[in-house]
């Protein structure tokens, strides 16, 4: 991770760090914070993609969310006097993230109404997205969940519609097996929804799987 202090500013689509914020670059696979660590900072994803995952006491892991740019993460530390991280955040691609010390962030919320309003708006939007993700996981087939995830990954990639995530990681993120992911990827390719050159390319037509009323695989999940 690399970082530098940046100046105060707000702009449409991007929240730039106010005074006291630090602009950090995280490499693909680098952890932003780790479950069990002290919750001492709040983060805003300016560019990139972040996986939020958790591990149970018996060692069972799960992906809780995949967060695109324009979203806060680690904000649960604001709710507790001595916060401890209940999940791990990992950069899925090279990411640029603004980091605020918890105390400085709370002071900004108290003294900068414009900043506070922006934060509330962003957190409300994330809550809505989390609700959509929960509905997606409960009601939709693994095929739909995979299609939705591929479209999200394609949207945030700087090279266009390229996706650079292994099938093992996709399976973990969707909540299914690698064999199911492999089956659906082959099906999507056969139907022209995705293609391969040096990397996986996602075509807009894949959205037809997400929008379909009837699950393509006929099973849940």
Automatic annotation (TrEMBL):
<dbReference type="Pfam" id="PF13545">
    <property type="entry name" value="HTH_Crp_2"/>
</dbReference>
<dbReference type="InterPro" id="IPR036388">
    <property type="entry name" value="WH-like_DNA-bd_sf"/>
</dbReference>
<keyword id="KW-0805">Transcription regulation</keyword>
<dbReference type="InterPro" id="IPR036390">
    <property type="entry name" value="WH_DNA-bd_sf"/>
</dbReference>
<keyword id="KW-0238">DNA-binding</keyword>
<keyword id="KW-0804">Transcription</keyword>
<dbReference type="InterPro" id="IPR018490">
    <property type="entry name" value="cNMP-bd_dom_sf"/>
</dbReference>
<feature type="domain" description="Cyclic nucleotide-binding">
    <location>
        <begin position="26"/>
        <end position="126"/>
    </location>
</feature>
<dbReference type="InterPro" id="IPR000595">
    <property type="entry name" value="cNMP-bd_dom"/>
</dbReference>
<protein>
    <submittedName>
        <fullName>Cyclic nucleotide-binding domain-containing protein</fullName>
    </submittedName>
</protein>
<dbReference type="InterPro" id="IPR012318">
    <property type="entry name" value="HTH_CRP"/>
</dbReference>
<dbReference type="InterPro" id="IPR050397">
    <property type="entry name" value="Env_Response_Regulators"/>
</dbReference>
<dbReference type="GO" id="GO:0003700">
    <property type="term" value="F:DNA-binding transcription factor activity"/>
</dbReference>
<dbReference type="Pfam" id="PF00027">
    <property type="entry name" value="cNMP_binding"/>
</dbReference>
<dbReference type="GO" id="GO:0005829">
    <property type="term" value="C:cytosol"/>
</dbReference>
<dbReference type="GO" id="GO:0003677">
    <property type="term" value="F:DNA binding"/>
</dbReference>
<feature type="domain" description="HTH crp-type">
    <location>
        <begin position="140"/>
        <end position="207"/>
    </location>
</feature>
<dbReference type="InterPro" id="IPR014710">
    <property type="entry name" value="RmlC-like_jellyroll"/>
</dbReference>
